[in-house]
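Teaching assistant here, posting this on the class forum so everyone can see the example we discussed in section. The complex has two components, and the goal was to see what a joint structure prediction looks like when all of them are supplied at once.
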Amino acid sequence: MKKLAAGIDIGGTNILLGLVNEKGEITERTSWKTTSFTLPEDWVISACSFIQEKLSHYPDVTFIGVGIGAPNGNVHSGSIEHAPNMPWKGIVPLASMFENNLSCKAVLTNDANAAALGEMLFGAAKNCRHFLYITLGTGLGSGIVVDGKLVYGHDGFAGEIGHVILFPDGRPCGCGRKGCVETYCSATAIKTTYAEIRQKNALPAIPDADAKYIYQRAINGEKEAKQAFQQTGEWLGLVLANSVAYTSPEKIILFGGLTQAGDLLMNPVKQSFEKNLLQNYKNKVAITCSSLPENDAALLGAASLVLQS
Amino acid sequence: MKKLAAGIDIGGTNILLGLVNEKGEITERTSWKTTSFTLPEDWVISACSFIQEKLSHYPDVTFIGVGIGAPNGNVHSGSIEHAPNMPWKGIVPLASMFENNLSCKAVLTNDANAAALGEMLFGAAKNCRHFLYITLGTGLGSGIVVDGKLVYGHDGFAGEIGHVILFPDGRPCGCGRKGCVETYCSATAIKTTYAEIRQKNALPAIPDADAKYIYQRAINGEKEAKQAFQQTGEWLGLVLANSVAYTSPEKIILFGGLTQAGDLLMNPVKQSFEKNLLQNYKNKVAITCSSLPENDAALLGAASLVLQS
């Protein structure tokens, strides 16, 4: 009998839900704005209704459960715990909410962990046993794979490279501390970097300049926009070189909107990476972009949390 | 039949060798100055002679092989590879040298990895499945244990926290780069820190002041010596907090001469650690010192490389 799982990718901006089969094909999908739901309970009801309605069209299929990737997701408790970029505060036990509503298995983990798992099963990390997975979005998420397994750590919260402190007393971070990596290396961070460069060069501020806009200006030859990508790439290259010293991965896979800037970002990332690597690691670690469709890695990975077991 | 293994702990200054039984008891031991041997081959001959001579006193015992902990030790190749603080340069295939000389099994790994293994089998990390092991000596070594296993990574070189870049363009490091953690947090580093503080306060330099001497002056109430430990502890606390974000350990175990400074080092380490931890990890991670005799952790761990298999 064929199997389907629900994969859910929860981000600070959007929530994606899909029904996924064992080949990694998404047969049904929907999405919501995260901020539309003040209470997570309300969203869970909408999500369960969607799943049940769609499953009624697949009478010959076994539904094996719900996999969820979410910021600050704790695989041990099945909860989102104190996610700084989420409208839902405190501890949100999403896995048990789905289990209660649908009487099925539900597994929840960090959104970047889920994406890393998707990449390992269906994407650029196939057959790779040691890799880092970095998502460059609103923040910087990460999943660490050692010997073919996601590293969860003692409390389920391993892999928070975005909250490594890069510059002590640096930029304020959503987590309440200062100088975290994600305040320098993310789609949000490049806006700050661009604004700082323009200010330094006595140019007027562009309040709505987001990563896409900065990219367009860089492509059109604007020096400050190019510098913003150069500087972001240099910081990210340093962070990745430092990260290699922990788990010595074979590959680093970058994912998320910011990677669409291509060479504009990747050239300085790779230069800074090789420059900052310890001799032992030089010329051994490949940096590549995700090979999965932009929005599907986390969703496929989330579904894999239940599909693989 | 009883078993014995040879455990060897190679450092930049000393080499320790012991015969170790299955209870973790060292029944025979010797040591050398590392710099006494320009060629590693000469030392291997001395080491093999010692092992063979001592084994002749144990006719009823099975010798199961040689375990070696060494700086930049690569478990996959059994070689020391480009160790910055060693007199032996390039690639030194020690495991195969012992295999050839003694016709036995030989396993080599990073010295800090070996010490971590010793601590897991016989010391402060017993029954602990997720921990970081930090050695504070000439440099800063580290072993990372995830789910009860040492992390070796793709190429066998995982766990080089001492060569994470803490301050870009900072202090020159033996590895050829600048700003590495071990240039700020190690027995060598505190000498530089102390000298810098004295210089800043317009005090004369004390050329031979080592960590022990600085400790004595701090105990005697000297402000600059106390500041050197305070500053070293603050840096180390930050590094450890950042490291938790990778593998989310239950414990961090500190080892090495510098830990004998006790509260003078540990108080600022713990304060800085909790201050710099991401909310998710706060009050969850214990920092303790090794419970093994100072010089034996790496030797016992090295022996464990063959004893446990």
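For the discussion questions: The radius of gyration of chain A is 20 Å. Residues 118 and 301 of chain A are 3 Å apart (CA to CA). Think about how each of these relates to the inputs above.
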